[in-house]
Amino acid sequence: MLRINNIVFLLKNNAFRRQAIKQYKKALKNESLSYKCLSELNFKKRKKLVNYAYNNISFYKKFYDTAGFNPDMLVSDKDWEMVPILEKDMIRSNIYDIKNPFVLKKYLGVATTGGSTGLPLKIYTDLRFHHEILGWRAFEWWNLSPAANVGIIHRRTPTTFIGKLKNRLLWWPTQRIYLNASSIDEKQLTDFIKSIGRKKIRWLQGYVGGLERVAEYIIINNIKIDTLKLVWSTSAPLTKSIRNKLEKAFNCKVMNQYGSCEVPNIAIQCPHSHDLHVNYDYVHVDIVDDSGKLIREGEGDILVTNLESYAFPIIKYRIGDRSAWVGTECNCNIPFPLIREVKGRISDAIYTPDGIYVDGSYLTTIFDEYVDVISKFQVYQKRDYSVIIYVIPYNNSFPIEDTILNIKNTLLEKVHNKISVIIQVVDTIADDKGKIRYVISEVL
Ligand SMILES: [Zn+2]
Fold first, then answer.
1. Which domains does the chain have, with CATH numbers?
2. Spatial distance between the Cα atoms of 111 and 131, rounded to a whole number of angstroms
3. Where residue 117 falls among pLDDT bands split at 50, 70, 90?
4. Ligand 1: distance of its center to the CA of 284 in Å?
5. What is the 22 CA–ligand 1 centroid distance (Å)?
6. CA neighbours closer than 13 Å in the CB half-sphere of residue 411
7. Per-residue pLDDT tens digits for 148-193
8. How far apart are CA 361 and CA 313, in angstroms?
9. Which residues surround ligand 1, an ion (CB under 5 A)?
10. Ligand 1: distance of its center to the CA of 30 in Å?
């Protein structure tokens, strides 16, 4: 069956997404490059992007001129230090000046990121590059095909009949099952677990928090899972205890991945190490100390450059996570450099006494539709399970009662009215060294 899946998968992609297959083949070829050739390719792409951005994107012209930087100064890799760092706030206040006016609308995607350490942020993505091919490439490291049957634990899952049907046709004959990570109750959980065996699901992809919740249920109820080959965990740090729990419950290996809405598939784990290989041919990563200096040793802030996005250039962007370079090479012979598992994404969640769980990756997005009304927020759960949501309105004279009521009702529905939720308007929300924690729970 898997061979048929593979053939149909390639045929369909070739017919409808020819560009994706072309890029996939190119990406596979890059794996045989030496590190030196790979670095040269990476630097060439950075230089091209910086030049393009300066000459075509009004934001970058102004930003670099003000900072005293000019792309001509970028001769060798060591000059990269001079390129100014792009902060999240700059993107937020200049979104339309960063968007490339010369790129056709059909190539522009929109991504909204909640993130645990930043305000909701809307950005544009370049649909001409298919970032999922980097996931496909990593699958080969794990002897798995992207056409294999998959279970997905995600915030966005098809809900309507038409949506489900379309999804079924799009992916057929590959089976895809879904679990909505934003709120998981026991019925959904048992249905999902039963489907893993029934539909011969080979791999799971999901948020750490959601995967952990499913794993706990499997362990407590002593359920045997024997069809899975890999669990792909994303969007939050994978602690050792969670990794062990996932491996035990799902009876297979766990592949850790680091990516974000702004730049997907930045770095992926291979079977030989717990560190992550940076997809260096498509994404550039820097690690900087507190003064913004590039470092090769020790932990620092991650800066990301998306080498493929000309529709919305993201260059030396401080993404809000931390990691460190790994000095040694990996045994796998893949030339992509290694970073340590990423720290800084906090997957806090809120809970009810009877075990309903609302994932932090969902909670950080509850204000996504109200970014013009609410400027800051924090979801705080006390030890007695009650939840207070602190909010700072954008403009004190603007009525926010309706927004508050909507948010409160949505959340109460998620927790089945089992705990109290109040929303409190405040003037300030305490931060942690400049980073806001969006969700804090004293429960657990
Ligand atoms: Zn490796």
1. 31-128+263-339 (3.40.50.12780), 132-258 (3.40.50.980), 350-441 (3.30.300.30)
2. 13
3. very low
4. 18
5. 24
6. 30
7. 899 998 876 666 777 777 766 666 678 889 998 777 788 989 999 9
8. 25
9. 270, 272, 330, 332
10. 15
